[in-house]
């Protein structure tokens, strides 16, 4: 018979520092290409493919593309993604860390959709376009259960 003491012990061990391993569901393979014009327009194009840990070898979940534009005249920015359930955000002005979030179906045999998120450090290469204002990078972001709320405004 399970004693109450036994259950409490398991609970304490399970929540101890470092004891809780967050389950990893897979990762996003993200490509980022950006740039700016002399007149102050800025843009960023990202392509993301999610790979589920439980998915077949090479079985990505389909590409999601996002296009972001900053308009210096209105000082407004717009973000459009090919899937509403996907979003990303930079953690800082210098674009050194990126947070990704996506709602996906049938992950690891779970019924319905779940939202996964992850953050990773990015090293972008600068000076990749003719005007010298371009940058690009590639990053793998591992996916955990999240939620960070709504992204992309
Ligand atoms: C990420 O995508 C690039 C380009 O398709 C590919 O070369 C690379 O192997 C991928 N990396 C992983 C870990 O899936
Ligand atoms: C990013 O790098 C910083 C400094 O090296 C480190 O403390 C942090 O854990 C890293 N973040 C991720 C998500 O790997």
Describe this structure in words.
The structure is a single chain. With 153 residues, the protein is mainly β. The protein contains one helix and nine strands. It has one helix spanning 4-15; strands spanning 24-36, 42-52, 60-71, 76-81, 86-90, 97-105, 113-121, 125-126, 135-145. Strands 1, 2, 3, 4, 5, 6, 7, 8 and 9 form a nine-stranded antiparallel sheet that branches. A hairpin with a 4-residue loop joins strand 3 and strand 4 (76-81). It is elongated. The protein starts with a helix and ends in an 8-residue tail after the last strand. The structure holds 2-acetamido-2-deoxy-beta-D-glucopyranose (2 copies). The site of one 2-acetamido-2-deoxy-beta-D-glucopyranose (NAG) has 3 residues, from strand 7.
In terms of topology, how is this protein built?
Layout: H1 4-15, E1 24-36, E2 42-52, E3 60-71, E4 76-81, E5 86-90, E6 97-105, E7 113-121, E8 125-126, E9 135-145
Antiparallel strand pairs: 1-2, 1-9, 2-3, 3-4, 5-6, 6-7, 7-9, 8-9
Strand content: over 45%
The pLDDT mean sits at 83
Q: Could you say which structural class the secondary elements and strand pairing correspond to?
A: mainly beta
User: Hetero groups bound?
Assistant: 2-acetamido-2-deoxy-beta-D-glucopyranose
Number of strands: 9
Unreliable residue stretches: 1-19
Rg calculated over all Cα atoms = 20 Å
- Give the SSE order as H and E letters: HEEEEEEEEE
- The helix fraction, in percent, is under 10%
Q: What is the makeup of the main sheet?
A: 9 strands, antiparallel
End-to-end span in angstroms? Answer: 53 Å
Please state the overall shape, judged from the principal axes of the Cα atoms.
elongated
- Total count of helical runs of at least 4 residues: 1
